[in-house]
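Tokens as discussed.
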């Protein structure tokens, strides 16, 4: 590799964030890998290369009065193998990370705290997922732009069913062991782990349930323990009508407080 992917991404982020009032990046100690932090008066961003996950991660945190960041919240993550990744892959990551830090909801995203039952941050929404899919299926980009022009927004479920699912089905059927297929499985697992409740539901009940039986069986072993198990259960609900739970009659007596 004739370039430093980390340095390339760090420099691009530094150029953009300096225009927003952030300080120059500083090295950050992190047990998961190489990291830097970009700080301003209230918030901070961090770029991390997670060695175990082999991925670049863009995170954010609120700053305490002493200038130290609080708990990091993951905003976006991209797989990148330091041995096989190329400049084009790094530039795709740069484009995505810049899109995040330039977003109009940047401050809200930095301060947002959506906790799961395990106390983990899950604040990646369906649009993040769709943007990641565009890098696996580049031909979706024009369709995504047309979706925004026509409807003024992205209809997540309708767009995924019409644009992404047929391409995923074709990829898995024709090239089940290809690198794009591996990236798709890794993306599904990563987005499920870090996604909000809407995205997690879309991945299981819309995307994975939308695959044919043969294609689902081909990808399920690559989805990780949690998503692999959950998706197996969700597939059993295909075609079944789920009745809403009936309200139980209240049998308890009303207790009134006595005034003394």
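Sequence:
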């Amino acid at each position: 590799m004739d370039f430093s992917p980390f340095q390339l991404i760090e420099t691009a982020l530094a150029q953009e964030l300096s225009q927003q009032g952030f300080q120059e990046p500083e090295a950050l100690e992190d047990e998961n890998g190489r990291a830097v932090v970009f700080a301003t008066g209230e918030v901070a961003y961090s770029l991390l290369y997670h060695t175990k996950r082999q991925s670049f991660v863009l995170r954010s945190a609120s700053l305490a009065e002493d200038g130290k960041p609080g708990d990091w919240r993951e905003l976006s993550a991209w797989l990148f193998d330091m041995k096989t990744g190329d400049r084009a892959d790094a530039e795709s990551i740069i484009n995505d990370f810049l899109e995040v830090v330039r977003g109009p909801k940047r401050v809200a995203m930095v301060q947002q705290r959506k906790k799961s039952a395990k106390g983990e941050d899950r604040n990646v929404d369906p649009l993040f997922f769709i943007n990641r899919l565009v890098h696996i299926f580049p031909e979706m980009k024009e369709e995504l732009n047309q979706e925004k022009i026509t409807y003024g927004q992205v209809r997540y479920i309708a767009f995924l069913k019409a644009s992404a699912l047929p391409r995923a089905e074709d990829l898995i059927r024709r090239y089940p062991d290809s690198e794009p297929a591996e990236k798709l499985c890794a993306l599904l697992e990563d987005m499920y782990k870090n996604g909000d409740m809407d995205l997690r539901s879309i991945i299981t009940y819309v995307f994975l349930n939308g695959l044919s039986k043969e294609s689902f069986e081909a990808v399920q072993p690559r989805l990780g323990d949690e998503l692999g198990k959950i998706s197996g259960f969700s597939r059993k609900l295909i075609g079944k009508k789920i009745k809403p739970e009936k309200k139980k009659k209240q049998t308890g007596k009303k207790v009134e407080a006595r005034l003394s």
